[in-house]
Amino acid sequence: MIGDHEFKKMDRKEFLKKSGLGALALTAGATGLTSDLFAGKAFANGKDEDDDHGQKDERRFGETKLHFDSDGKFKIVQFNDTQDDEDIDPRTVQLMERVLDAEKPGFVVMNGDNITGGTDTPDEVRKAINNIAMPMEERGIPWAITFGNHDEDSLANSGMNEEAMLGIYRAYKYNRNDAGAKGITGTGNMNLLIGGGRGGKDPVFNMWLLDSGRYAPKEIAGQNFQGYPSWDWLRMNQVNWYYETSVALEKKFGRKVPSLMFIHIPLWEYRFMWFASVDGRTEADHARAVIKHGIIGERNEDECPGPINSGMFSAILDRGDVKGVFCGHDHVNTYSGNYYGVMLGYCGNTGFGTYGLSGAERNRLRGARVYNLQANGGDVNVETHMVFAKDYGIDLIDPVTLARNADPGLVPDEGRNILK
């Protein structure tokens, strides 16, 4: 979880601009944006079910606006931790574009840490958002976001909180975020139903998009969190909202609607699954877990949940409608497995402008997660897998590596974009 990058001879923005890898190579004419994009009006042209204020009408409860195709198929792509400022690494956008062109999904989830610190004015926030919105907008692909712990990193300078950013996201033509559930913790908590083929109105599938928060409070009941994880957790009112909405959907449609849940910060159960244990941390524990839970993929850093177990997994087990929970946050984890009937999985990370593996392998796991849904009677089968930048021929060598070769005085720090 890295903040702004620092350089010995120039800051990151100046470095990228001088190296020819500066702000995203999009022009207003090529993107369908108004010509004053870089004057701060970074919104897609056109409206889609908008009101007079440019915001989309709120969906009625149980309404479907996405649909499976006539063969009973639907595809979702998840991008995680694009996590850059207005001078985005062009390879991040290149990766998004190539995945979208290859997979042709019906929906995209941008699952938190979509932008990061360094966006110090409202215009810079808009530009950073526009960088990651346009791959879907140009292709007419519906999409939505969740928030992560870094999206508000520049709040003190830009004055743009999550609510303000949600308004920017919602102004895009193909964005499907709504204002979010009222009276609960977080910004933009919502669910989105997918109807059957040929315009069927009854939902076949559901997506839960939840704000897993930013950081733990300084203290509770006079006790601080020193020695505990410093990140946030889903709060009980969010768990209750999921549970009650799930019950209401079942009551409305006469059956449970199968679903996936997207959150940025992982649940504690991810770690329990990896070791098939609450306390064990040995290779033998993990070997047992691989067999028990069918784990595939890599774990290159510890899971980073908050200090409190939210109880969301218990609620999910009780309701029995969530087929999988998928997160980001821990950039170099890509694993997934079946934990007592619920798939738990990571998406790695998409953004080249933030931390990755160490050394020459820094960008090896930049990628996206693909979900292939197949309606099967009253149920939906879900197949999921990772795709990686290397699969699309994207250059994995960093500009800092090139700079180091040209000037040995520029030394990378643990494979991250920090020059000492």
UniProtKB/TrEMBL annotation:
It comes from the Bacteria. Gene3D superfamilies: 3.60.21.10. PROSITE patterns: TAT. Pfam families: Metallophos. Residues 74-332 form the Calcineurin-like phosphoesterase domain. PANTHER family: PHOSPHATASE DCR2-RELATED, PHOSPHATASE DCR2-RELATED-RELATED. This is Metallophosphoesterase family protein. It comes from Paenibacillus spongiae.
